Fold this protein.
Amino acid sequence: NHINPLDGFFKEGVARGAALCQAKGIEVSTAVPYSISILHQSGKTLVIAAATPYNRVNGIARSAIIPVHKGSNQIWILSEKDSQPTREWSIEGHLVNVPQEGNLTVNLKWGEGGKEEENMSVEGCGLPGAISFPPQCDETTLGKQMDERYGWYFGVAKDLRKLVGFARDPLVRFLVPRAGSATEAERMADELLRVPEADLRQSEGIDVEGECHLTDQELELAMKTDYFEMRKQVAIQRGLLSAEATEVLDRALSVVVPRSPTSTDQLISEANKLLNSSQNCSPCIQYWQQLTQWLHQLQLARDNLSVASATATAMGALADCLYKEKIITEEEFSHIQGVSWSFHCDL
């Protein structure tokens, strides 16, 4: 049956509804239109299920426990809309630094004050207090995010022969203390980086542009398994790399990819710069105050890794807000993320 907007009963219903909305003390309730999950390195954790009822004034708050590694972790908020394919699910990412491995508590609040956006905070794993994040500034989709990551991975895999060559000398230097001699270190490095010639030729034939597009089934796999293990599975299942080649690829990457650790002094300097550039950004005041508080504690206790971790995380949160408000450029945003990400490289 179709509703006739000119029908008297329909008009009366609309009028009564409008009157109720103006009345004080009336609480309007609704339901979350889609599922909200946390996507992390070890898989996906549901936080708020679709159709969960909530009050539009207070919103809805839920918490989830996720496993993280000591140091920097990428955490995504994933919005799964049933009416859209997997590739179109929206995804928002944040960097979280923790001083110890364990289970991190992620708190999500959605729809507070009628605003349909997620506000996230984290606590645990040695952090001395909760740290809040704004809604992510560079929202993208799950498909686009993962396609970009796999495009990079396949690009590196295509140059596996060159990567192995670059990795040999630094790996030898790393192994000398354990091996006892340069000759034995060279032998161990050659064994660790050994890839059959046929596998090297196979990797050189990878069509990066043609392979970087993941299927919905592969995206589902990314949400159910360890992210790094999943990318190996995709490369093997597509016949692009052998299992041995994927192991050597990851090993060589860990040696070659530069990891310039951020010192505590550098962290303090970068945090001060960010605070100075954000003094006139009213939407960022909460995250400005948050970083100010952690930075003050760090300046009083430079050797406190828990406070330093909180400072690095709070700096990333403020950068999220500043980038969203176009106070800082994409280049500046990437630089701050890099500083936050690399802080724990020396721990």
